[in-house]
Specification:
Layout: H1 3-12, E1 20-21, E2 51-55, H2 82-94, E3 99-103, H3 113-122, E4 126-130, H4 138-144, E5 149-155, H5 160-167, H6 172-185, E6 189-195, H7 202-211, E7 217-221, E8 247-250, E9 255-257, E10 268-269, H8 275-279
Parallel strand pairs: 2-3, 2-8, 3-4, 4-5, 5-6, 6-7
Antiparallel strand pairs: 1-7, 8-9, 9-10
Bound molecules: S-adenosylmethionine and iron/sulfur cluster.
The site of S-adenosylmethionine (SAM) has 21 residues, from strand 5 and strand 6.
GO molecular function, one term: metal ion binding
Pfam family, one: Radical_SAM
InterPro entries: 4Fe4S-binding_SPASM_dom, Aldolase_TIM, Radical_SAM_PqqE_MftC-like, rSAM, rSAM_sf
Length: about 280
Amino acid sequence: MTEYEQRLISLLVGTHLGWRYEARALPRLPRSNISIIASSGEDVKRSTLKFAWWEITGRCQLACDHCYASSGPNGSQGTMTDADWRRVITQTRESGAEMGQFIGGEPTLHPSLSDLVAHALDTGMEVEIYTNLVHVTPAMWETFQLPGVRLATSYYSDHPEEHRLITKRPSLRATTRNSARLRELGIPLRVGVVEVLERQRSRQAVDILKQLGISEVGYDNLREVGRGVRENGPDVEQLCGRCGQGQIAVSPTGEVWPCAFSRWMPLGNVRQDSLMDIAR
Ligand SMILES: C[S@@+](CC[C@H](N)C(=O)[O-])C[C@H]1O[C@@H](n2cnc3c(N)ncnc32)[C@H](O)[C@@H]1O
Ligand code: SF4
């Protein structure tokens, strides 16, 4: 593993949507062992920023049954202007973060994604784009190849029908093809497998990813947030327990949360206050 990869993994481990990284086995997250250290928005205001989720849109071509962001074709790009996002990205860097992630919804549907990525790179941050890889335009391929950019995507099954059952569109082929292309181009890619169905073919999905040469595979359980609510609903039990450890999420309307999942814990709004003031 290169030093760059080691550094990225140390930045990524445990910071992105609670994923646990391991190429070998895929254990379930033991909920009973999760130590909840934040029970309210107040608790997370005390740390230095290391990482930010920039949730730039609520739109998506897919409509996954489990989507914590409740995204879909009717989702909105929100009220944040490009100028607002550029300011937030600059403030993220000025707050000490070394990496930011463009996420949604589907961030590649935001018309200014390439410009915002370029701006983030200009500030000196590394950038991750978290995309379903369903449709990648030629311009987006160029953005993906910029130094300092890495990709994350989602994969659920080796079986097209099971995958479609989860994403609500026949998306497995496109995601697989574009994942393989990223690999060919040498663009760093990590893949998240989220278990949302009983007896889901997630291990077989990981086998396919390994065949494509993708070893950075993370695994998560369903979090009961947004469309992911089943029996329990959103509360701290659905979180990873590391709230307040240098992460923050900004929504399409400028709302700031401790992370992308903890959407019921507003800390402030970047359209009214600076990220520094909100995170202080
Ligand atoms: C919200 S999506 C946004 C990026 C992109 N649209 C995608 O799906 O890859 C980011 C990741 O969150 C995961 N996710 C969505 N809802 C979830 C939930 N309720 N519990 C756990 N993971 C979830 C998705 O499976 C995906 O891997
Ligand atoms: S999980 Fe990702 S791909 Fe699925 S609906 Fe949500 S934003 Fe879209």
